Amino acid sequence: MKAAIQLASVSLAVMAFASVAGAQTPAPSAVGAPQTETTGQAPAGNADIVVTGSRITTSGFNAPTPTTVIGEEQIAKNAQPNIFTTIAQLPSLQGSTGAATGTFSTSSGLQGLSSFSLRGLQPIRTLTLLDGQRVVGANVTGVPDISMFPQLLVKRVDVVTGGASASYGSDAVGGVVNFITDTRFEGFKGNILGSITKYGDDETGLVQAAWGKSFLDNRLHVVLSGEYDHEEGVGPGDFGTDLAGSRDWYRATTLMNTGQTNNGLPQFNYRDYAQPYQYARYGLINNGPLQGIAFDQNGTPYNFNYGSGGQPLGNGQVSNCFRGNSFCVGGDLSGAPGSGASLKSALERINGYTRIGYDFADDNEAYVSVNVAQVKTSNQPSPGYNRPSLTVQCANPFLPQLIRDRCATAGITQFSFGTSNGAFPDPRVHTDRRQYRFVGGLKGKFAMAGTDWNYDAYYEHGITISDIRVQDIVLQNRYVAATNAITLNGAIVCADPAARAAGCQPINVFGGFAPSSAALAYVAPHENGPFQHTKLTQDVASLNFSGNPFDLWAGPVSVAFGGEYRREYYRVNADPYGAGVSAISPNSEDYPADPLLNSAQGSNWAAGNYKNGHGKYDVWEGYLEVDLPLINSDSMGRANLNGAARVTHYSTSGTVWTWKVGGTWDTPLDGIRLRAVTSRDVRAPNLSELFAAPTVTTLPNFNDPFRNQAVQVFQNTIGNTNLKPEVARNTELGIVLSRPSWLPGLSLSFDYYNIKLNGVVSTLSADQIVRFCFEGNQAFCGGFQLDGAQGTNFVNVQPFNLASWKTSGFDIEASYQWQQPLGLPGSFTVRALGTHIRKFIVNAGIAGVDPVDQAGANNGNTPDWKWLAVQTYDSGRFSLTVQERWISDGTFGNQYVVCQSSCPTSTTNHPTIDYNKMKGAFYVDIGATFKIGDSLTIYGKVDNLFDKDPVPAPQTNTGLDINPALYDTLGRIYRAGIRFNF
């Protein structure tokens, strides 16, 4: 397989995007879009193409909401193993998640989940549909996984860059991404793709096939498809700067915190090669008179090289280093875990789909479809087990005699110790998502009162089963017990007799000595590590009608109306060591009782403490959309007014209204159209926000402002069933020049957008909740208790509708197509799409916290500019395409004040920093296709042709300093494949 994949050395095939101004025309008529070939003849009732910006299906209707349409030929030319990557390259999409994001995480459950984010508003505010229908979520946030869609059957993808809640319901705040499948495909087609990076990793193999045929005089239509995709992923690496696959660009770039705020110097300093000074790969004494003694792989003590010319001060600090986050620069980097995280999760997906439709009358069809898919991923969050504050007894028999003697000389019996546990097995996170989706429906036409009406009714039942397992994560209290060893009857054993009785085996953490299999089984039970089992179900019943009930002076009035019922449910169960139970059964073979573990509250693992939970909600809604033709004349052009309203009742939060008003005007000026739309859109709280599985954290020194004393508090992180829907006001204004007679190959568009989102669901800290109540805000006083006996004090931390976001900017598209350029056969097309974010202001809604404009903060997801440009020559048999992707320069964060000296006082809202520039990126992709006969096409592609390294995205900890949501992190990728269609 590897040898075959490596044959994909050169070539390209990129998409030629077709962006339509919300036109009610199929993708083939979009500017520069090649004709989409289909086989079989659809009945007249299916001739109308619904672009997702509206429910109106009348031929010739122009929706006021901008819609970009990507056809199947453009999808094929982009030559990606997952259609998600092709769509996510659009400039209007910012912050989408995929296999390269979330790889540093252990507990999120989002690893490998491919979901779209329009306008940088996060995936939960983008509504993703399949054939105009909702899809069951792949996670309790409610977002679906694009990897589970029947990708080979996708005819086109409509991307609506504007609010569409009035037409399609909740979550369409940033817009809608609608995948349209070929329900009448006939024949047999397939695709085989292989790819590999320049570094010899992420070996990928994709096999897709689809078959369709009509029976019973073209009344019965059967479509089948299946696909298998295996992506090996990239990583993991090792400690220090030893990144996976011989990549040399990782520099442990960090924002060093001096801890000083008012000395005239910047609080934060941008530096490469950050070294944490609390721990080392095989152990470091980090406090007291022996501070600075480390251990090599053989357990031999040596003086640690701190970097920065640092010297241990005996109090846990190091001279010449950065105390705020305990870093030095340079020195011994061998214990830093950041480089060990996977750059891309390994991913395996299997998808099967079938649709059977029967035309029981002319222009009327009954159908059923079944989609069964499975996606598995795995990633390594970081190597070893970072433990920066372990108390070690000087009598520990594993300690070299030299150190025990030094203890005696110094008059100490114990010391503080930090280690990366470099000899431990590296943890792995495995996810397994299985989806079962069943749809049955009726659609077609009927005549009433002398006019034709369209109808579409369907019922969908979706199930997602998600399992997460973590291997080689330690149980923290067991680890501590195993490291505290003594000599008993001539044998080295665990010091705690209760731990010994429960099976504790001692571990030598002073050097690179791998724990015995028995010790590992006790500290990090491989087979019985953290796990989470989640079941989500979605039921949707929908009925929609559209037609032209009567005519006005400028043409027929178009109407669409309908209703929908939806039920969302989830239940999650986790292992008892993480979730906690009233008592762990002493007879449990997998999870035996252990006095060292907290059986009631759980949270015993170092990471991956999943919890139990469940919840559901129901939604009832109805909508009406009307299109009024206002002008239709040669002198004035053609104009229409479009409006929609939807009423929605949520079982958790009551009733909410959404609406939109907009219009288009095809002016009498040749090829010029104006469009405008304003809307009220909503996002209802999802299952996670409403019914989050509770987690418990102990806060030992919590400040009680009512009594002005420190108390121990249990922080209960829970959902909030009192959340209300987020409400957005979305406005767009645009002008389009489309195929003027004086230059028919030209298309230009400019669209301004402005979104104001209020009641954004966000979470306060325990300290903020209590403080706000103390300051007189009664809304925060019902969720905590501080006057109980020790052990009963608690604070419930839950989300509230606090924050508000404001973002605005504009989209630009330009394209031109030459027929027979320079006398050559075929066509040459150039196209560019760009999005500029003018502002993205996040207001936390918390007193004393200033709003921050995140536009241009490249450490996030909202760069000032994002561009995509494509140049394609297509002779009909041969095509050559060059694509450029560009992200503008930005900052680490716009809250910083840049200064070198004479700095103002550094504050939480506006910290000072010595450098705040984050370079953008420019990528070039190139490739080609060649048709062999009418049925066979070979293709090749090179992504990131010049092997552009990612720009450092500095953290304030030891994480992997990159931003995979914006930057290419894998390097040059070679792809090659073959497609056939019979």
From TrEMBL:
GO terms for cellular component: cell outer membrane. It comes from the Bacteria. Keywords: Cell outer membrane, Membrane, Receptor, Signal, TonB box, Transmembrane, Transmembrane beta strand, Transport. Residues 421-945 form the TonB-dependent receptor-like beta-barrel domain. Pfam families: Plug, TonB_dep_Rec_b-barrel. Residues 62-176 form the TonB-dependent receptor plug domain. Belongs to the TonB-dependent receptor family. Residues 1-23 form the signal peptide. Residues 25-45 are annotated as: Disordered. It is found in: Cell outer membrane. A motif (TonB C-terminal box) lies at residues 965-982. It comes from Sphingobium chungbukense. InterPro entries: Beta-barrel_TonB, Beta-barrel_TonB_sf, Plug_dom, Plug_dom_sf, TonB-dep_rcpt-like, TonB_rcpt_CS. This is TonB-dependent receptor. The keyword Membrane applies.
